[in-house]
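Dissemination and training. As part of the outreach component of the grant, students in the summer workshop were shown how a complex can be specified as a set of sequence lines and then modelled as a single object. The example used during the hands-on session is reproduced here so that future cohorts can follow it. Participants entered these lines:
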Amino acid sequence: MTDPEAREKRVLDAVKQRRERVNDAIPEELPITDPERLYEASRYLLDAGGKRLRPTVLLLVAEALADADADDVDYRSFPSLNDSVVDVMAAAVSVEVIQSFTLIHDDIMDDDDLRRGVPAVHREYDLETAILAGDTLYSMAFEIMLETGAPADRTVRALDVLASTCTKICEGQALDVEFETRSEVLPEEYLEMVEHKTAVLYGASACVPALLLGADDETVEQLYGYGIDVGRAFQIQDDVLDLTVPSEQLGKQRGSDLVEGKQTLLTLHARNQGVDVDSLVDAESVEAVTESEIDDAVAELEAAGSIDYARETAADLVESGKDRLQVLPDNEQRYLLEQLADYLIERGY
Amino acid sequence: MTDPEAREKRVLDAVKQRRERVNDAIPEELPITDPERLYEASRYLLDAGGKRLRPTVLLLVAEALADADADDVDYRSFPSLNDSVVDVMAAAVSVEVIQSFTLIHDDIMDDDDLRRGVPAVHREYDLETAILAGDTLYSMAFEIMLETGAPADRTVRALDVLASTCTKICEGQALDVEFETRSEVLPEEYLEMVEHKTAVLYGASACVPALLLGADDETVEQLYGYGIDVGRAFQIQDDVLDLTVPSEQLGKQRGSDLVEGKQTLLTLHARNQGVDVDSLVDAESVEAVTESEIDDAVAELEAAGSIDYARETAADLVESGKDRLQVLPDNEQRYLLEQLADYLIERGY
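and obtained this result:
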C-alpha cells in the first residue's frame, strides 16, 4: 500500500484521463444542431465542466470486467465478454447527460442561481429554455444509450435501468422538496430520499457496463450495490462540504442548505442531539447570510458530533461498496474503483 | 358509402370504445404510489380526460395488422404476426403518457392557466411539482414501453422511435417559442415546427404497433407517414378551432393564439395576403381580450381566405395519410383509421 498522497494522485490521474475522453465524446454525441439555441442551452452545463465521476465509474467498470486499460482500448469499440464489441463511451455519455438534465431542472425547482461557478441555465437563458433543454437531454440520453451496438436483449436491460433510475431520481427530488416543509423527517426517510435522488445514478453507472458487456446477474447486482453505497456516501459528503468548504471553492454560498432549511443527515443527527436546528441560521436568504453566522452554526453542529456522525456513515458506506467489488477480476481498474470510493469521501470539494 | 352522420357515429363509437379501455389501463400502468403528491400530480391531467386519439390510433393499427377487433382480443396479450403475444395496451398508454408530459411542461412554458377545462398542473399544484410530474411521466413512458413483452429487437426499435420522437417534440416546442419573437416565419418553417411538435407523436403511435408486432419495414414507414400527415392536419385544424369554437367548448379563451402572437398557418397566409396580423387584436393578454375583438379578427382572416386555406391544407394532408393505409389489410380497422383521419379535420372541437 502506497502513501495516501500517492494513492490520491493515482486515482485523480485515472479520473482526469477518463474525464478528458468523456469531454471529447460529449460534443460527438450531442452536436449543436438546429434549433441552435436549444442545443446550446442543453450543452451549457455540460460544457461548464464537472468531474465526470459517473461516466468514469462506468468506464472503469467496463475496463475492470474486460481486464483492459484506458490506454489500450477503444471505448467506442470495446471488447464484450463474448465476441461482440460495445460502444461503452456512448453509455458513459448517456449517464452524464441524465445527470446534467437533472441539474438543470433541479436548479429551477430550488431557484438556484449558480452551478459550477456559472449561472444556472434558467438564469443564463430563461425558464422556458431551461425546461426544454432538460427535456431534450432526457430523450437524448435514451437515444445515446440505444446506440452502443450491444445485442438487443442487453440494450433493453440497460434502458430499463436508465428509465427506472430517472423515475427514482424524480421521486427523490419530490421527497427532497416535501421534506423542506415537514417538521420531522426520519433518518430512514432521509436515506431513502438520498438513495433515490443521487445514489441510483451511480448504481446505474456501475451496473450498465456489466449489462452491456454481458456479465452475469450476480456481478450486475453487486456493481449496482457498489454504486448505491458510493452514491449515498457521496451525497452525505456533499452535505458536509456544503458546510465546511469556502464559498469560492464550492462555487456557491457555503451553508446554503442550512439557510434553505434543507434536511440532511447532519441536521437529523443534530436534532436528535437536542440542537435547535431551525434556529441555527437566522438569515432568510442565501444573499443575506454572513460567513460568521455560518461559522457559528458549523461550530454547534461540530459540538453535537453531527459532522463526525455524517463522516462515519459515509465511511461505512464506502467500505460496504468496496467489498462488493470482489465480483470483479483483481486488477488495476478494480483497485481504482476502490480508491475512487475512498476519494469521494476524502475529497476537499 | 354510408351518410356522413352515420360514418361519424361509427368512428366516434370506435374511439369511445378504445378510449374506455385506455382509461382503464392508465391507473394500472401508473398507480399512485409514494410519494403520493408526485404521482397524483402526474396523473392529474391524464385523469382530467382527453380524447385518447393517439393510443386509439395505436390500437386500431394493431387490430388492422392482426385482422382482429377490440371486441375479440385481449390488448394485454395481443397476437403478434408470428407466434408471440405483445401487450399493445402498454404501448398505447406509453404514447398517451408522453403526450401528457409534454402538455404539463408546455403549459408552464406558455404560462397557460387552463387545460381540458381544469387548472394546468403548475396552477393546481406548483411549478416545482409540475416540472417533476412531467419528468416522472417521461421516464414512466419508457418504463411502460419496455414492458410490452415484445422480442428485444422490436422493443429496441420501438424505444428508438419513442426517444427520437421526444427529442423532436422538444425541438418543435423550441421553434414554437422562437417564432413568437420573430417577425417573419416561412410557411416551410411553420410546417416543420408543427411536424416536430405534434405530428411525430402521431407518427410514433401509428408505427410502434407495427414494429412491436413484427410488420415489414415498408409497412412501418407508411404507417409513420400516415401519422405524420394526420398529425399535421390535426394541428392545423386545432389552430382553426382556436378561432372558431366558443371558449366554453374549447376549455380556454377563444383566439388565445392571436392574442399571444402565435404564428400559425392561418396567420402566415394572412400576412402573405397583406393582412396586418400583428394589429388584428389589440388586447395584450388573454384576460383582457373581448369576444367582439376576436369576432372582428376572425372576419378579417376569413375575408383574406386564410381560414379556407388552412382547412384545405389539412384536407390534403388527410388524403395523403389515407393513401398510405393501403399497406394495411383491407378490413374494418383500416376503414376506421381512414375515417378517423377525416374526423380529425371535420370535428367541431
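The beta strands of chain A are 78-79, 85-86, 114-115, 118-119. Students were then asked to discuss how this feature might be tested experimentally.
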